[in-house]
Amino acid sequence: MTEQDKPVLSPPVAIANPQRRSLLRGAGLFGGGLLAGGLGSAAWFGQLAKPVDPAQQVVPYRGQHQAGITTPAAQEAIFIAFDVLARDRQGLQATLQLLTERIAFLTQGGPAPVDHPKMPPPDSGLLGSNISADGLSITVAVGASLFDQRFGLQAQRPRQLSQMQAFANDALDAAWCDGDLLLQCCAHSRETVIHAVRDIIKHCPDKLAARWKMDGFLPAGAVRHSSTPINLFGFKDGTGNPDTADSAQMNALVWVDDKDQEPAWAKGGSYVAIRLIRFTLEQWDRTPLGEQQGIFGRDKASGAPLGKTHEFDDPGFAADPHGQQVPLDSHMRRAEPRQHGRHDARLLRRSYSYSLGLTKSGQLDMGLVFICFQSNLQTGFIATQHRLDGEPLEEYIKPFGGGYFFALPGVSGSDYLGAGLLQAGR
Ligand SMILES: C=CC1=C(C)c2cc3[nH]c(cc4nc(cc5[nH]c(cc1n2)c(C)c5CCC(=O)O)C(CCC(=O)O)=C4C)c(C)c3C=C
Ligand SMILES: [Fe+2]
């Protein structure tokens, strides 16, 4: 078991009730630092009373799985897709080795490197002379295009990895889609994720060409208090997620393993579906509350399923077969009909809000970077999105970018990210 896989609480403390679950989500600011420090669960509650400084939090980048997937979501994010400039396998290996080195440095923190004043400074200086780890995680995922003829990796492509095809309500813009590599950078402060992306771009001018980039954010209060973040429609978003502290569930839903019949190197990785979705907020803000709530199937203030009292209450669909409480076409009911047990939607969501300028027609350009992780893309994102196709929410959303990627398995010892893939492709 790697550091990253150790349960935050020992198994007898089962996460049965929602209060416990939201408490566990609180490990966001505390748990990662403790794991990094190698402390056990006994000290965990003690630390709750005396939180560590978030700026000092180190999220281990090594482990069976990459960080940034089941890691509690930090407040700030940058999603950036690149095309690889290398022309051969050796060049790709050098790129992944350098990326791993940068991730190791940036996520652990330390003194900013200095050089001769006649040289360009090796660090941007954005974080001062001492770079804080600041809860930074950088997750590396590969796109289907990496498995074309350039690197001879065709036979190693994860079985379900392909270019994302448009769904019925999509207006995909190629400039915002796909890429050989996707980096998800998350940290407690904006300057830390910007510093990380600038560092990687500075070190890889001959290796990576940026293709598209989107900044994401979560409400500060929700992250600080470990409550469910509220999206730009004003609804709590994440309530129905599976429990990341339940490793059996994560193995079933998120991590590729022997059950998935994927290439051996892919074990420990996860499929990523990322969607850039613009909201028509001017129209939404003129929509009656009752209609808004019917669209999601939840109470706007509490997040409870309609007809229930608390956020984590079971919606009781079996007792509401005609949708008198939670409409049959509401977002939550279509996404997770709960017909065959709890997880019809076999995925873990980890979405962020985005806010750009104005659209060409003068509307707010704001929305959601929807991102989810799953061991099976077909039964995860694709099946769920098909159930959502035609939902009433579509009147207020327009997906315009993103793609499918595969988050590489974690890295151990002195290995580099993707080493298993490149060795398998020999
Ligand atoms: C294909 C998967 C999904 C897409 C795309 C998606 C887009 C999307 N979602 C919201 C807001 C909410 N989603 C909520 C629940 C929810 N959404 C999905 C899947 C997709 N959402 C699932 C599997 C679930 C869980 C349903 C459940 O278990 O009850 C909710 C309700 C609160 C919650 O559980 O998180 C909200 C709110 C937006 C705005 C959006 C794209 C524009
Ligand atoms: Fe959703």
TrEMBL record:
GO terms for biological process: iron import into cell. Pfam families: Dyp_perox_C (PF20628), Dyp_perox_N (PF04261). InterPro entries: Dimeric_a/b-barrel (IPR011008), Dyp_perox_C (IPR048328), Dyp_perox_N (IPR048327), Dyp_peroxidase (IPR006314), EfeB/EfeN (IPR006313), TAT_signal (IPR006311). Residues 66-217 form the Dyp-type peroxidase N-terminal domain. GO terms for molecular function: ferrochelatase activity; heme binding; metal ion binding; peroxidase activity. It catalyses: heme b + 2 H(+) = protoporphyrin IX + Fe(2+). Binds 1 heme b (iron(II)-protoporphyrin IX) group non-covalently per subunit. It comes from the Bacteria. Keywords: Heme, Iron, Lyase, Metal-binding, Oxidoreductase, Peroxidase, Signal. Heme b binds at residues 331, 349. One of its GO terms (cellular component) is cytosol. Protoporphyrin IX binds at residue 298. Signal peptide: none annotated. Belongs to the DyP-type peroxidase family. EfeB subfamily. This is Deferrochelatase. It comes from Aquitalea magnusonii.
